[in-house]
Amino acid sequence: MKNVDYIIVGDGYAALFFAHQLLLNNKSFIIFSEGKKSASQISAGIINPVVLKKFTTFWLAQEQIDFLKISLKEIESYTGENYFIDSPIHRIFHDENEQKLWLKKSCNEDLKNFLDENFDHLNGVKNYFHTGKVNQSARLNVKGFFAGLLTYLENKGNLVKEKFDYSKIDISNSIYKDLSFKNILFCEGMGVKENPYFSEIAVIPNKGHHIRVKLSGSIPQDITIKKKHFLFPLENGLHFYGGTYDREQMHHEIDNSAVEQLQKGLSEFYPGDFEIKEVHFGFRPTVKDRRPILGRHSHHSNFYVFNGLGARGILNGCYFSKTLFDYIEENIPLPKEISIDRF
């Protein structure tokens, strides 16, 4: 029998950022990774403090950005890799009214550090009304982040590559198979619907598609371009474009309508030909109030959940991993805005 402080079920942003907190605090743990590509692992990796449809920000945006930068430096110290890509977002304006709204919003106290007052013109794409730069925006090297961290954890003996079997939990003795645990944390994304302990939490699947395309002409390579969706370069000569949002089509197949939407969206501002090389989709766990769900099970005091990260998985997963750790280890109350008890 092996004794651990934590079992973590899942291998997305919530699981890995919480594992980082455990590493920082010298806690023993095992992560169970089924090995399927989660919504986190196919995500765009956009780090963005602004809602670019309305030019607004969100709760704790600056705090989340600052904490992420610190955390990625800490992770670099043991993986040896820097996963932060300094590639700011440039939002293409549709018309002069959007320019004026951007400038007006840039004077707001909560947005002045994010909305750049100077507009840019980009070569290689249609941007008749120029673009606005989102300061402090960036990207995460998603492929590198998951490959690097999972390899590191596997080499340390913290990773088990198998599907977690809920029926093997001995609740009264806090034992799972040959593991004795103090706490168990479920970070399964939409997989939580199969979890007998937290299947009723208020997460809603949101299906997202993105395409990987070969462009016929060159565009700026050191930025992320945003109009309806995000466009940025990948390391293999392809470009990422996406992603869509769909709460209706829940089947586990590619939706042609979503691909057509992406083709149309890219064609609106990219003037050249492009070839779709790959199509990917995943199911984001979203919440009605757009805030994650954290907390303790109502009957099992050492069972916890960390879910509902939505489209801000990197920022939410990183920042609130520390909040959850402090709640479990230091009994610091969770903010009501993210607590499971708010529903």
Identify the notable features of this structure and list them briefly:
25% helix; 8-stranded mixed β-sheet; single chain; globular
Explain what you see:
There is one protein chain. With 343 residues, this protein is of the alpha+beta class. A hairpin with a 2-residue loop joins strand 11 and strand 12 (179-186). The chain starts with a strand and ends in a 13-residue tail after the last helix. It has helices at 13-24, 61-79, 96-105, 142-155, 256-267, 313-330; strands at residues 2-9, 29-32, 46-47, 84-85, 89-92, 115-120, 131-134, 138-140, 159-160, 169-170, 175-176, 179-186, 204-215, 224-226, 230-233, 239-242, 274-286, 293-296, 303-307. It has 6 helices and 19 strands. The protein is globular and about 65 Å long.
Brief write-up:
By secondary structure, this protein is α+β, with helices and mostly antiparallel strands.
Based on helices, strands and strand pairing, what is the structural class?
alpha+beta
Please state the average pLDDT score. 97
Taking all Cα atoms into account, the compactness measure Rg is 21 Å
General shape: globular
The succession of helices and strands, N to C, reads: EHEEHEEHEEEHEEEEEEEEHEEEH
- Beta percentage is 25-35%
Low-confidence stretches: none
Figure out the total of helices: 6
The termini sit apart by 38 Å
Describe the largest sheet: 8 strands, mixed
Helix content: 10-25%
SS elements, strand count: 19
